[in-house]
Request: fold
Amino acid sequence: MNRRYTFLFLVALATTAWAQNPRLSQLDNYLQKQKDNVVADSIRQVFASVSKEASDCYRYEYHRDGVDTIKYELAFRYDDDNDQRGLIREVARFLCSGTNGGYYHGGKEQVSDNEMKAIEVFPITVAEQTATTTAGQSPNPRLQQLEDSLKKLGYEVIFSQSTADKLHIRYTWSIGMASRGEEQRQRQQPIALDAIRAAFTDLSKASTETYLYEKHKDCVDTIAYSWGYKPSGSLRPQHYNHRVSFLNAREEASFFYNKSCNNQDAGAYFHVYQKPTGLSWDDRKSFDITAFEAHIQPAFAVLKSLKGAATYPVYWRHDKDYKDSLAGGRIHMILGDDVNHEGLVTGSHYFIPAQYKAETNALYRQLDSLALDYVARHPEQTHRYETTSVLPYATSPTGELFVDSLHHIPVFKLQGHGPTTYFLRCNMYNDGLHILSISNKGEGWMPTEWQKLKSWINGKKVYLKGARQDEKRREIADAIATKQWHIDINSMNTMRYGSRTVTPDFYLELRGDTLRSYLPYLGQAYVSPTLSPTIGLNFEEPVLRYKESRPKSKKYTQVDIDVRTREDSYHYVIELYDSGEATIRVRSLNRDPISFDGTL
Reply:
């Protein structure tokens, strides 16, 4: 709808000598030419575009019951190294409140000027175009458009849905905006910031209240945006520094961002929408665990066809008299903080090995879809559901695996509340995806080694068959693959003097392309006068040749390494067993061969 107001505007003409911001100069000319038909959105867009350059910029809007209040202020400050550093050199203001308002743009020709230069006064008629909106009936489409564009730029969008106050469903979208030092993210950041700035500017005219603040000075950038909507009545804003939250908004969005001079940045985007359920207090029900688990079972059918995939029972119990130290790290709490409360956790543990990346992603998508479908069908059941745009094995548009995506999926995918609390958890580890479908009565606890346990009763652990051995094999395989391992020596076997035990401080270590050898020696030296029969194999040298093999029907990996020191050349043959044991054989040009036994 359009409303017209006649205001008295103070405009600085482009003929003044001081250097003006070109966008503000264009706005000055526009106001002079369009005296009787100025559109407020033109002023809005100019202030938005200039805000990312200004030293300070504050924009506020309020639209309620036919009353439009708009207040914009921005300033440019001197940044030269002189006595006037930090003082204002150019300023622009726009005010529209009720039937009174104005626009001012002024600046200084030189630092020594005591006053701003601003001339000519004339009346202008402004048409404030308040956007026709269906806000409140569904999440704001402009915000959803923004979230889709940020997702396409590679940002992770986390969505959650929960029963807020028994009578509303609360939807939340959140995005972490820090670049984390990544080159690609740093290139995307300006594009993302422009998209967010444009979206909040567009939203301001369809808001109940909007607060938009920016500060760009001395290589430090600060941005804080807050937008709120309520179908009727006023909002109750809470201010903290330049951030604002609305306690009673039907829908709100906020964004904050800060970048320091060393390019370290932090930021986050939040969007919250509360939808009335149309239910009464008497309609509320506890979460139906049995019905939900039956609803999601089709997602786990694929486990039967995957080698190594499994379903395990969960049974974790602690009685009231059981004592444990939280500081000792032996158990994690799911819920509650009183170690003297009894509790029982039961359910199922689903596991998919890491090699099934496509199958894992497909299961995760299906589980997401089924869980969301269930809570959408049953708004009367108390719950909290969360999902993300990142898959367990997320890939870039070029198909490359995002290494850091393994731990970005939400841990708590769904919580159901009632006399018995329900949890659907997804945990991503190097060995694969672990999913827990569990419920607890009383105090809920989680053992630290839960993914390897068959049961846990008052601290007594019963491990799944082969769980410890499987974990050891994975650890050893990772160490070999990354060329990062350390062997503690237990004994040595000489050619002339038999076997000897050794003190525990001897070792052999590989760190990438460097071999660190601190080994004892007892044997005959053939040529070099500098080599004593008892001088150890003590050196740190680059690897000249590296070969890795896995003999058939053997439970070890063989690693061959060649190195050269000033005194001799050495060939190491290392056998790394799946059990964690290791043997080392060393041959050289000028000494007897020798071997060692140790532990990886």
